[in-house]
Amino acid sequence: MLKKLSDFLAGLPMTIVAGAFLLLDLVPHLTGSLGSVPFLPFDPAWITVFISGIPLLYLAVWRIVHNPGMSKISSALLISIAMFAAIAIGDLFAAGEVAFIMAIGALLEDATVRRAQKGLEQLIRLAPAKGRRILNGKEELIPTEEIHRGDVLRILPGEAFPVDGIILCGETSVDQSIVTGESLPVDKGEGDEVFCGTVNRFGSVDISATKVGEDSSLQKLIRLVQEAENRQAPMQRIADRCASWLVPVSLLTAVIAYLATQNIVTAVTILVVVCPCALVLATPTAVMAAIGQATKHGVIIKSGEALEKMGKADTIAFDKTGTLTYGRLDVSDVISVDPSVSEENLLFLAACAESRSEHPLGKAITAFACKRGLKPVSPDAFRMEAGKGIAATVQNHRLLCGNEKFLSQNGVLSGPSVRTALEKLQAQGKAAVLVAKDQTCIGVIALSDVLRPQAKEMVSRLSGMHTRTVLLTGDHKKAADYFAGQAGISEVRAELLPEEKVTNIETLRREGRRVCMIGDGVNDAPALKSADVSIAMGSMGSDIAIDAADIALMSDDLSAIPYLKRLSDATVATIRASITLSMCINAAAVVLSFMEVLTPTTGALVHNAGSCFVVLMAALLYDRKFE
Questions:
Q1: Dihedral sign, CA of 502, 507, 510, 511?
Q2: How far is it, in rounded angstroms, from Cα 445 to Cα 431?
Q3: How far is CA 233 from CA 243, 339, 516, 563, in A?
Q4: What are the two backbone dihedrals, phi and then psi, of residue 428, each rounded to the nearest 5 degrees?
Q5: Could you give the residue numbers annotated as active site?
Q6: Which residues contact 130 (CB under 8 A, 6 or more apart)?
Q7: Among 196, 215, 234, where does a domain finish?
Q8: Measured in whole angstroms, how far is the alpha carbon of residue 552 from the centre of its chain?
Q9: What is the pLDDT of residues 208-238, one digit of tens each?
């Protein structure tokens, strides 16, 4: 009951009412005609004290009862004491003012720390509900909970693997981006490992279950997100961090003032001016202004804590696929090794052969040819071997497109020039499709993910801000090294599973680094949650990554990262300056109170002026230019 009343009174509508009555009480103080407002039978400040004071008192008592140790002493307790002291000497305006300023600070902070924490349910839904078990030569569809280690399961094209396992027979290509973040489907054959939740793209395969239930890779991913979420402590107000020493110091100062002056009004005035209202406002007002500016630039910041931590981050870790790169395949090289076949003709023949293919590599080749103005014709005959390549007949020519092993199995040998080209492409982390015409290898078409054009400048600007950059990716080492070199990132950690990304982030944190993680995929969620602060690529990223992250880039523009770092740095600097200013004003007010220059009412007005300065400094953040 008390909680509901407190929440109701602490809401925005009632706080506005409290402010209106406080303003009504301020008029006679300013005009010098002290006394009750003519049309009210009581002092209007009582309304403010009731509306803003009850939630304050409830919070102070709740923390005394439930918080451990020194955290029982909070800024709410100090302000409650000041409020009651002001009421005791009959200065209701001072009592209402300190309670009202505290209520405003609480509303502003609540508005900045409201975070969207969804997505875990979506992650859980990725786990298949059923699996196809082979028992005594017969197929039976059973719930995944009934699958045991060693069971033989059949996975058809388009189905997700219900558990981790080893392929017993069959060949296919597996989309395992949700686990490793790899943009390319991975060819798998007998003896290869597959992960729960990854998708079988082509051939039917039989697997032996190795990790089931809670031991599967996807369930482990879910647990990592849950555990990382639990490790995230809620943001504490700076005033509360100081309260353990501020409360006893202020009470001691008030007692000393009373003993020195024998004036209870002086003691109460000190309690009023020492109240950390400006301190309470410093963080949420600066954060709100910064969040407002960031929103104009397509950056969604979910909490004030995230902005503060971004300003203190000195290491930024990037995922590769979908973050530094677009996460889509594109033809990067067309290499003809036959003098009689031009690069354009090589691309045309490959596009014709692949025009009926469902493989991402084949689709990318066909799309690239169309973009170049070529018009592929449909093959007269078409055959695909999952995980290897395709054979087609185009304009009476037999064409083969696939890997070196596939061509060799079909009697086509690759010469030294082809092997040299393949070695160079593999060093760059590119996927290569060999093209053969009438039993002769005529060239190689390479495909690669595409580096975002802003990546290199972004890394350079971060380096200029003395920020360390690290690449954490599930991709192969060669691909990771190639793209890191293109972007200017010198530190690369590749072939990482989600839990290994988390381990790397925790290692960086143990080194004393404050880590920001930037990613886009489901596999990045645990790492995003484990970092001090995290950023998701919002436009192309998964919902789970966006929900796991503290900040989202809605335009996927990497140039926003240096902007965000500068904005966060400025926000932290503004908060520190505001805190320093409020402390100086409080110190000056204490001295003036000792000299009996200030009364509780005038002290409250000076105290209010400090709060206004803090709000003004924060407001200047909103329109500041950050190049």
A1: negative
A2: 8
A3: 19, 65, 16, 27
A4: -95, 5
A5: 319
A6: 141, 142, 143, 144, 162
A7: 215
A8: 6
A9: 999 887 777 667 666 655 554 444 434 445 5
* pLDDT tens digits, one per residue of 534-556: 888 765 455 556 666 788 776 67
Tokens of 413: 């040998």
The three-state secondary structure class of 467 is: coil
Q: Which amino acid is at 59?
A: L
Alpha-carbon torsion (38, 39, 45, 46), positive or negative: positive
Cα dihedral 259/265/268/269 (nearest 10): -110
Asked whether the whole model's pTM tops 0.85, one would answer no
CA distance 237 to 240: 5
Q: Residue 3: how many CB atoms within 10 A of its CB?
A: 10
Sign of CA dihedral 339, 340, 345, 350: negative
Q: Which domain covers residue 161, as residue numbers? A: 128-215
Number of alpha carbons in the 13 Å side-chain half-sphere of residue 417:
9
- Using a pLDDT cut of 90, give the percent of the chain over it: 19
Same domain assignment for residues 494 and 441: no
3-state secondary structure of 473: coil
Which residues, including other chains, have CB under 8 Å from residue 456's CB and lie 6 or more apart? 486, 487, 488
* Co-location of 417 and 473 in the same domain: no
Token representation of residue 251 = 């009470």
Give the CATH number of the domain where residue 159 resides.
2.70.150.10
CA distances from 238 to 11, 154, 303, 614 (A): 22, 57, 15, 14
* Domain count of the fold of the chain: 3
Q: Is residue 308 part of a domain?
A: yes
